[in-house]
């Protein structure tokens, strides 16, 4: 039986991971530590709040004393570190918060873990510190380049990516220097339920439902590898169960799409949903459908983001061959499921409408 501490467990990936873990490992206990910043929502975890195997703690990962106390009192043996500032645009306009959370916060967790888990060298506690990172630490690919693998040199191009690269290095150093039992995963772009509506897919869905323009940076030909959050959770599970201590693993959907093609597909799928259910027009009166228009009428091209990476793509052969990972959710089917979730959770979307 494992006793997990999940940082950032009320955010997008964290929420999905906690729900996944308790469903797949009902005998384990999970404690969530989350500061509930703008993208965190404790209501995401309502389905597990009453479980005797679950505890929620509002707090900051930079509070080393709090983290140390949780590790001791909850007898944590597995820490899954998901707490992070993750939106590139926000990192460009305000990089300080990214340095504080992603670098200083990660170091705070490492210090607490070292103190609790490695305090007695003669009797070390069996433990795991799993750090969830991003493929953006590798930089940008040209269209003809091979995807990133775990040996690709780091070359981050945004303050967000640089802060995640620094945190990766810190985690690895605590393994090499102190013997902390760590693993790292670098994932491609996630999508799915509970994603804050600032990222591309939920932004497009919510803007269409609210009749707002869909901004496309530059020419829209930036390429991203899309990974369903469900598949991502399974990948983390495999790493925790079978991954080799000290190793990094890329987790990707192996499904690369240009941004403009992703947006066009979203528009098409939402058009189909509204065509099949006339009641949707009554619910979403600001949508283009109420005016007899397609969702694609909202697409508008805007000035490209500063330092915008052209392409991400990850080579997943290591986690596939060593741990048996394979994505199960195809992108088109995953988008359909995601769209229906947002259509069925209008109140959840509205709760974020004034958050910025």
Output the helix-strand order.
EHEEHEHHEHEEHEEHEEHHEHHH
Strand content of the residues, in percent? Answer: 15-25%
Give average pLDDT, whole number. Answer: 95
**Structural class, please?**
alpha/beta
Find the CATH superfamily of the domain at 3-195 and 227-255 and 313-328. Answer: NAD(P)-binding Rossmann-like Domain
- Percent of residues in helical segments? 40-55%
What radius of gyration results from the CA coordinates?
A: 20 Å
Largest beta sheet, briefly? Answer: 7 strands, parallel
CATH topology name of the domain at 3-195 and 227-255 and 313-328: Rossmann fold
Count of extended strands: 12
| Number of helices in the DSSP assignment | 12
The CATH architecture term of the domain at 3-195 and 227-255 and 313-328 is 3-Layer(aba) Sandwich
Shape: globular
CATH structural class of the domain at 3-195 and 227-255 and 313-328: Alpha Beta
Cofactor: NAD(+)
Family: Belongs to the NAD(P)-dependent epimerase/dehydratase family. dTDP-glucose dehydratase subfamily.
InterPro entries: dTDP_Gluc_deHydtase, NAD(P)-bd_dom, NAD(P)-bd_dom_sf, Sc_DH/Rdtase_CS
Enzyme class: lyase
Could you characterize what this model shows?
The chain is an alpha/beta fold. It has a domain at 3-195 and 227-255 and 313-328: 3-Layer(aba) Sandwich (Rossmann fold), CATH 3.40.50. The protein is 41% helix and 16% strand. Strands 3-2-1-4-5-6-10 form a 7-stranded parallel sheet, sandwiched between helices. The longest helix has 23 residues, at 95-117. The mean pLDDT is 95. Keywords: Capsid protein, Lyase, NAD, Virion. Pfam families: GDP_Man_Dehyd.
């Amino acid at each position: 039986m494992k006793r997990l501490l999940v940082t950032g467990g009320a955010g997008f990936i964290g929420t999905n991971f906690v729900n996944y873990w308790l469903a797949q490992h009902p005998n384990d206990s999970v404690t969530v530590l989350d500061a509930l910043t703008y993208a965190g929502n404790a209501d995401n975890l309502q389905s597990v709040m009453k479980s005797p195997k679950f505890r929620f703690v509002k707090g900051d990962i930079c509070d080393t004393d709090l983290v140390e106390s949780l590790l001791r009192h909850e007898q944590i043996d597995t820490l899954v570190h998901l707490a992070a500032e993750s939106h590139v645009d926000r990192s460009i306009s305000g990089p300080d918060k990214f340095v504080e959370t992603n670098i200083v916060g990660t170091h705070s967790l490492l210090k607490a873990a070292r103190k609790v888990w490695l305090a007695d060298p003669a009797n070390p506690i069996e433990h795991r510190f799993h750090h969830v990172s991003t493929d953006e630490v590798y930089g940008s690919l040209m269209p003809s380049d091979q995807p990133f693998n775990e040996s690709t040199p780091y070359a981050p191009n945004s303050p967000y990516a640089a802060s995640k690269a620094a945190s990766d290095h810190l985690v690895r150093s605590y393994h090499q220097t102190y013997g902390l039992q760590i693993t790292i995963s670098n994932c491609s772009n996630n999508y799915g339920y509970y994603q804050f509506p600032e990222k591309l897919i939920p932004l497009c869905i919510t803007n269409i439902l609210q009749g707002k323009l869909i901004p496309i940076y530059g020419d829209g030909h930036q390429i991203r590898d899309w990974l369903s959050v469900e598949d991502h959770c399974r990948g983390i599970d495999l790493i925790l169960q079978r991954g080799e201590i000290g190793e990094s693993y890329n987790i990707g959907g192996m499904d690369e799409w240009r941004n403009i093609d992703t947006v066009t597909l979203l528009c098409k799928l939402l058009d189909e949903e509204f065509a099949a259910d006339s009641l949707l027009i009554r619910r979403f009166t600001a949508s283009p459908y109420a005016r007899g228009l397609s969702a694609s009428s909202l697409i508008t091209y805007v000035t490209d983001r500063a330092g915008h990476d052209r392409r991400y793509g990850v080579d997943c052969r290591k986690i596939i061959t060593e741990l048996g990972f394979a994505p199960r959710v195809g992108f088109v089917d995953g988008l359909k499921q995601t769209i229906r979730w947002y259509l069925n959770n209008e109140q959840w979307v509205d709760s974020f409408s004034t958050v910025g």
